[in-house]
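Why does this matter for the project? Reviewers at the last site visit asked to see concrete outputs rather than summary tables. In response, this paragraph embeds two records directly. Each consists of the residue sequence and, immediately after it, the corresponding structure tokens. Nothing has been edited or filtered.
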Amino acid sequence: MKILFEDDNLLVINKPAGMIVHQGAGEKKSTIVDWLFDRYPSMQKLNWPDPDRPGIIHRLDKDTSGLLLIAKNPQILEDFQNKFQNHEIKKTYLALVLGPVSPESGEIITKISRSGKDFRNKTTSILNMDESAKTAISHYQILNNYSLKSNVLCLMSVSIDTGRTHQIRVQMKYKGWPIIGDEQYNTKISRKISKEMDLKRQFLHAHKLEFCYNGKEMSFKSELPSDLQILISKLKT
């Protein structure tokens, strides 16, 4: 596990794709929490508000790679969760989506709730669907366009004001720009492209974290991992 920053209270790590953050229903694989307890045994003895998610300030999906912020004690956990709620932490992702995307930059505001068809999925709309629906706000900017046969693929940066489960993945599917490699939120065309490109996970990477800590403005970047860089190198602009 690559550590980008560490002090007595806080960790910034680079999570690899394929690793889950904490145990969930039916999950038995090694997790970020397992790694934490192995590296910092004293964390197990602390009084965490959620014993299943010790130190976990925010989540990344199993097949999303990139920057993850972790608290080493309950007080820092509470402080940084409050920062997230108050929009004091900026998270920026890189995603490859099925285009074309128009306009090339913009804001997406929708409601997100659990799908009535499958409890594992989320669904989104611009409408108030039910009481569980929560507002999700994302901002995107196209960085590059690529041609693949008769299709257009777009590399974009996405920053989020809210941290809803599967937010970027759900909103991109809703806009008609599904993330390439996403096995859960996709279309027939994006599934076909993902198979042709032999992409085994969604092309979504937590690229940048920005926040204030101990009176200092801090910024961390994680470049695309090798599997995604290789894929991009094969595409034509």
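We now turn to the second protein, recorded in exactly the same manner.
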Amino acid sequence: MIVPAPFIAAPFVADVCDDALWDRLAWSPDKHSGHVRIGFTTGAAPATGWPAVGDRCDVVYGPAEIENTHPAIVGADDPESAAHELADHVARNPQSATILAGVLRTGTEVSVRQALDVESWAYSTLLGGTEFAAWLARRGPRPLPPTSAAAPVLVDRDGTRLTITLNRPERRNAFGAALRDAMVAALDVAVLDDSLTEVHLRGAGPAFCAGGDLDEFGTTPDPVIAHFVRTAGGAGVRLAEIADRTTAFLHGACVGAGIELPGLAGRIVVDPRVAIRLPEVGMGLIPGAGGTVGIPRRIGRWRTFHLATSGTSIGAQTALAWGLADEVADVAPA
């Protein structure tokens, strides 16, 4: 069978829908059209209600005063411009943005473990894509990061509390292989020892975690091995298992894995000066450390799509208002 070119191109489109389409869109049986659907509104609620529109959109921009009406809505000074700006981001990385939308639609309908697998399969698919290859070419070749004599993760037990501290302050705790493996080993202690009733996650130095170590991107032998590293060998599934005992204390830059992994914790405390960002779509990827699983369970798939596709940064008060943080308090670097 020969697949015509328009069929291949059609999914890589971002529909931008305004108020006039709400009711028709909400009643449409085509819940997910196969491509990104972005809405904007001046504030008028559809006759069918926001949930019906939310079911059929990947995000809706509206005036700030209606942001709390439904988690699909992201407040904006100019909702129409915000919608078209996001559509431009989709156009720059259509493969990763479209796959992200599909993963987010699916992820909240299955278990956390299943959602982590879905995320990882999609991430491995994109590792072989042209958008990630283009990002690697723009970045250029880099040497692997230098090794350090210091332990990449510090583990301290005090009675029934286990404190796990990311300890690569000179690299802003970039989530590289050594740090990941050490964190997994520490989390395994908590998984196996249920006498530990509290697990605290902290970061040494100026940032909790500035995301994946960019010097290591593209170094995994193949996408299949990468999938098993992220899942069976990853921190996400372990954090999910002990979520009810875990509190993450975040300060400074929390980028990529630096917010994705804490998003799986049961409680998140953020410093007033925290900066949260998901940059992966701009690299031709999607969040791959649990970001499409824990974050949408806190703030909804729509705001997660907005954060990841736009690459915008949010602060403590927005994180608190959306539910990505449970408390804003001074968090001293460990």
